[in-house]
Give the backbone structure.
Amino acid sequence: MPPLTRWYIKLALAYFLAALAAGVWQAAGGPLWLTPVYIHLFVVGWITGMIFGVAYWMFPKYSKDSPRGSDWIAVATFGLLHTGLWLRVVGEARSSGELLVVAALFQWLAGTGFIVTTWPRVRER
Amino acid sequence: MPRVSVWLIRAALLHLGAGFTLGALLLVNKGVGFAPTMWHWLPVHFELLLVGWFVQLVMGVAYWIFPRFGMTRAARGREGLAWTAFILVNVGVGLVCLGLFGVGSGFALLGRLCETVAAGLMAANIWARTRASGIAAM
């Protein structure tokens, strides 16, 4: 399992716990901004993070010299996805429109980076 | 990776791109409020990512990676069922999105029906392959 995948999976597990904890807080009468945070910790941090990490590890190799495609795009995707998610959390908590815009850009770039690196690895053998 | 999985996973990636783009626009709109009617697209964002991306990716990977019945073309069960499921899930997502956006209530109903049939076909294909690893007779 490549190091980047280990980071993805361990962070995904942490987000899984964080999402469920946010759900407990929400059920206990937490603030309104918590609803989108709870949903996105779950679907972006846990599910999407897990998928990105496992796909990076297990999908067919890109080439012998570069088995998982561009390393720098993969690392940038990882950084952008998680930074974007945290900016989202802080932006929602502080009602900061600027942070939400940057979070949107970071997460969109992460999605695009994943598609660009994964697309050529999805092929018949 | 079998051809039908390639199509399912690539279609899932296209839905990921569309869903993330829409999600980013919704979040920017939440931040700076450039289009008040943007919120009408929120259910479409859910549909693209939950069914178009998550569900379709799982279908593609499961068809590829579950235990097989040998090394022949039929090793992954009835390929025709998987192709039909691929078509139905994508038509279903499209129809549901049209319905959610107010084109007509019948579109969402028909789309959900297509998605349900697709799920049934994929389950029928995967069911017998859900067993201990190793190649076995059908």
Observations:
- The interface with chain A takes residues 1-3, 6, 9-10, 13, 16-17, 20-21, 23-25, 27-28, 30-33, 49, 54, 57 of chain B (CB under 8 Å).
- The mean pLDDT of chain B is 91.
